[in-house]
Amino acid sequence: MDYANIILEMLDRIKKLEQQVANLKQSQKSNNMPTANTGYKQEENHSYKPSAPYQMTTPGKRDTTRYMFEGNVYLKNRLVLAVVKSYVSQNASITRQQLKQVFDKTLQGSIGVVENVDVASLRSDYEVRFFTKPIDVIHLIDGDMFVCTQWGILNIPNFIKRAEQLGFNIEPIK
């Protein structure tokens, strides 16, 4: 385990989180509630509703969109797992670092799409945040990776766009 890289990555995460907190504080001062890059718009009555394309079909209900991929129907997080597994099966000699570049951290948010098992395991909540069952672990030539389980209507469009750039066909099922 390369502790120097782990420490550098953690310091980078802390720096990004501190910047996000500062941005949120600034946004709260100017709007009394964060609105930038959230996918939400303020209504006249000061309530917040998702703006297009994030509008849920029924106000107040969870987005339960499912996705068709390679003949199977998936929820958001399982879709991500299936796409990553499919990509790895098509690119058998890919390394952990290359996979992290293909599925860049910004597609998901703070956790990232994929993470080295040894790094992810340092989190106290890693069993909730990642697919950790043996059948779900991604085995690469230089080590194992976990796929993140944390997907919602705000970050799944980024992932789907990237998957389509890679040639995968994903169809939403409402």
Please give a quick description of this structure.
With 174 residues, the chain is an alpha+beta fold.
The count of β-strands is 9
- Reading the helices and strands in chain order gives HEEEEHHEHHEEEHE
The termini sit apart by 44 Å
Largest sheet: 4 strands, antiparallel
Mean of pLDDT: 83
- Spans where pLDDT lies below 50 across 5 or more residues: 33-57
What is the beta-strand fraction? 15-25%
Q: Any idea what the shape is? A: globular
Global structural class: alpha+beta
What count of helical segments does DSSP give? 6
Helix content: 25-40%
Radius of gyration equals 18 Å
What is the subunit organization of this protein? single chain
Task: Write a structural description.
The protein is an alpha+beta fold and 174 residues long. The chain is built from six helices and nine strands. The chain has helices at residues 3-31, 76-90, 96-102, 117-120, 126-129, 156-165; strands at 40-42, 48-50, 66-69, 72-74, 114-116, 130-131, 138-140, 143-148, 170-173. Strands 5, 6, 7 and 8 form a four-stranded antiparallel β-sheet that branches. Strand 3 (66-69) and strand 4 (72-74) form a beta hairpin. Mean pLDDT is 83; it is low at 33-57.
